[in-house]
Specification:
The complex is a heterodimer of chains A (358) and B (316). Chain A is 31% helix and 21% strand. Chain A has eleven helices and twelve strands. In chain A, strands 6-7-8-3-9-10-12-11 form an eight-stranded mixed sheet, with helices on both faces. In chain A, strand 9 and strand 10 form a beta hairpin. In chain A, helix 1 crosses helix 8, helix 5 (138-150) crosses helix 6 and helix 7 runs parallel beside helix 8 (214-231). The longest helix of chain A has 18 residues, at 214-231. Chain B is mainly α. Chain B has a two-stranded antiparallel ribbon with strand order 1-2. In chain B, helix 1 packs across helix 12, helix 4 (88-124) crosses helix 10 and helix 4 packs parallel to helix 12. The longest helix of chain B has 40 residues, at 215-254. The A-B interface holds A 84, 86, 114, 117-118, 123, 125, 127, 130-136, 140, 144-145, 148-149, 177, 181, 194 and B 19-21, 202-204, 206-208, 210-213, 217, 221-222, 225-226, 228.
Chain lengths: 358, 316
């Protein structure tokens, strides 16, 4: 573990170190960290089948932070949870590939997944109070995955739990406290410590700062940022809050109705959004530098995902919709600056070299 | 009982405590008058049960009895004597041990069966839950006492009534403990199960599962600590019930004639016809003891419930 005030090169070092840690047996050391291809998730409900996620692809490299944004019900959380097979009982991965270190996780059985869950990909849940057992000391809650997953003794696990608490900025002595004795921010820190317990390669934060006040939010984001730098972690951050993504992430993936609308480096996407949905989403968010103005709203509602529109799913609400939009679903177009967009406004032929999908 | 000996915590004074930790449950219970009263009564009876010989001499038998027969209270015999000339004080104090030991063991058996089956059936659910709860229902609807009498007779038939001892406790007493355990676990199991059902849906159980914890681990480490307060509060009430059941069984002649219990004394008094002879000293002390102990447990149980149950706390 590097020192908390590591120099700039520490980040690169930590990322490289991460690869030397024991990888799963089947891992290909040269493969990218995570490649998701054409992921499709279905939910069976009494009134039909919901196509919650439909053909989502993305790629993450070591030490990268990916933000996923979109309206409620656009498939952000479903995408993230399906990576580690934590979908509700009525949800199934219909097709696609989730390759972690080159190992496809989709066909893994529940038992095989246990090896990857928490040790390679862990989660920080929203609402720390509910996810912490009220009658157990936080030290023991942090030690739990170390005991259960890594099979260490209780003493060793407690020792490590103390280190993890220090790492997330809680004095180790406070480990004997019960969850109700901690503040909201400290509870969220404890949740992060639990997620880090088994040295995962990827941490998924499902709205980790929702329900915290702004000051505490900033602290938690700083903490995540520091951990990423020091431990060489990769982050997947799911949030409604565009400012959180702007602050912490390298890349952003904008989802709409179970599909990727636009994905690319945060700066490019936020400064020059190409997809009309991204444009609308950004103008619906208050800007501290802009004049006081009425925030825009996107008229209409997201489509019913039991029977999604045949063409572009945003077409019914899109101000720039063309006739072709309602008929044919746009394919993804990759720009030279690393942004990919699924929109008919950018015909594949107009854009210079289209790189093949990773 | 006058003012409680322990300073009342939980008021403004508690703020000064580090990390705002609440005073321990025992302190909170003792700070309440009912908790304190119950506690003191039980301490007195525990002392009686632990060192009866020290207080009233060795247990008198028909052979060692010295007093007059069925004599009213006097200086030498503060609570009078029975039909064999034994001191009632001596008998009643010695009986405390048997009653308390049976109550204690029966409570352990009951709570153990009830908690294990309750947690498992709530957590595992499905067919296991259905079968366990139907069995529990069976024990709930059959009149406990009738069932206990029948069971005692059957078990005694099977294991015999000899003077074999297990851990220094005679077999006939063990029989009674088992009978009480079998007949009273179901309500405990039902209470624990209902709590487990609601705990099972909490996010921290999901989190533990995601981490990879198995069912046994979650039940032991997550569900059990959350139902401990229920188990404790329930155990106190089970204790009172167990003493009553033992008394009743002994009263109908299913006790152990060689080891006096309060029920045994009441039975002996009835056989001699003490009530019609006006020999009130024969049965009143044992009766008062039973009432006091059961009362003390009820007080303690109420106090525990008030301290441990957050809903009641808010109402106070």
């Amino acid at each position: 573990m590097t020192t908390p005030d590591g120099v700039a090169s520490a980040a690169a070092l930590a990322v490289r170190d991460r690869r030397r840690w024991p990888l799963p047996k089947l891992a290909d050391p040269t493969a990218p960290l995570l490649v998701v291809e054409d992921l499709a998730v279905r939910f069976r409900i009494p009134s039909g089948t919901v196509k919650a996620v439909d053909g989502v692809s993305f790629r993450m490299d070591d030490g990268e932070a990916l933000g996923i944004v979109g309206e409620s019900g656009c498939g952000k959380t479903t995408t993230a949870l399906s990576l580690v097979h934590l979908l509700p009982a009525n949800g199934t991965i219909k097709s696609g590939r989730v390759a972690l270190f080159g190992i496809d996780l989709v066909p893994k059985t529940e038992q095989q997944m246990a090896r990857y869950r928490w040790r390679e990909i862990s989660l920080v849940f929203q609402g720390a109070m509910n996810a912490l057992n009220p009658v157990r000391r936080i030290r023991d809650l942090i030690a739990e995955p170390i005991e259960v997953r890594l099979g260490q003794s209780q003493d060793a696990a407690r020792q490590r739990a103390g280190e993890l608490l220090e790492l997330v900025g809680i004095p180790a002595q406070r480990g004997t406290a019960y969850p109700h004795e901690l503040s909201g921010g400290m509870r969220q820190r404890a949740m992060i410590a639990i997620a880090l317990a088994c040295d995962p390669a990827i941490v998924i934060g499902d709205e980790p700062t929702t329900a915290l006040d702004v000051m505490v939010q900033a602290q938690i984001l700083q903490l995540l940022e520091r951990l990423r730098r020091d431990l060489g972690l990769s982050l997947i951050l799911i949030t409604h809050d565009l400012s959180v993504i702007a602050e912490t992430c390298d890349r952003v993936m904008v989802m709409y109705a179970g599909r990727v609308a636009e994905e690319g480096p945060v700066r490019r996407v936020f400064m020059a959004p190409r997809h009309p949905y991204t444009q609308k989403l950004l103008s619906a968010f208050p800007n501290i530098r802009a004049d006081r103005r009425t925030l825009e709203v996107i008229p209409g509602m997201p489509p019913d995902l039991r029977t999604p529109p045949p063409g572009c799913r945003f077409a019914p609400r899109c101000p720039a919709a063309l006739p072709v939009c309602v008929e044919i679903a746009p394919s993804e177009v990759r720009f030279a600056d690393g942004v990919r967009v699924a929109c008919h406004l950018y015909p594949a032929s107009d854009v210079a070299p289209v790189e093949p999908q990773p | 009982m006058t003012a409680p000996a322990v300073p009342a915590d939980g008021g403004p004074g508690a703020v000064a405590r580090p990390a705002g930790r609440k005073p321990s449950v025992l302190r909170q219970v003792l700070a309440r008058p009912d908790g304190m009263a119950g506690f003191v009564i039980l301490v007195v009876f525990t002392v009686l049960a632990l060192v009866p010989t020290l207080l009233v001499g060795p247990l008198q038998t028909a052979v060692t009895a010295t007093g007059p027969r069925l004599a009213p209270p006097s200086i030498g015999y503060p609570l009078g004597t029975d039909e064999l000339g034994r001191s009632i004080l001596n008998l009643t104090v010695h009986a405390t041990r048997v009653s308390m030991v049976i109550g204690f063991l029966a409570t352990i058996v009951t709570v153990l069966i009830g908690a294990v089956l309750g947690i498992m059936s709530g957590f595992v659910g499905g067919r296991f839950d259905a079968v366990t709860m139907r069995i529990a229902d069976f024990f709930l609807v059959i009149p406990t006492f009738v069932l206990a009498i029948i069971l005692t007779a059957i078990i005694r038939d099977v294991v015999g009534t000899g003077s074999t001892e297990i851990l220094g406790i005679r077999l006939s007493l063990i029989t009674i403990v088992i009978v009480i355990g079998i007949t009273s676990w179901s309500s405990t199991a039902r209470i624990i199960r209902s709590q487990t059902l609601s705990l099972k849906e909490r996010a921290f159980v999901d989190r533990a599962r995601v981490i990879g914890a198995g069912g046994g681990h979650i039940m032991r480490r997550h569900v059990l600590p959350n139902v401990t307060n229920l188990i404790v509060a329930n155990a106190v009430l089970v204790f009172a019930g167990a003493i009553l059941t033992e008394t009743t069984l002994a009263f109908v002649g299913l006790g152990d004639p060689f080891q006096p219990s309060w029920g045994q004394i009441l039975d002996a008094a009835r056989q001699v016809g003490a009530p019609s002879l006006g020999a009130w000293w024969y049965f009143v002390p044992a009766g008062v003891c039973i009432v006091l102990v059961v009362f003390a447990f009820t007080l303690l149980g109420n106090a525990l419930d008030a301290v441990l149950n957050p809903k009641l706390q808010a109402r106070r």
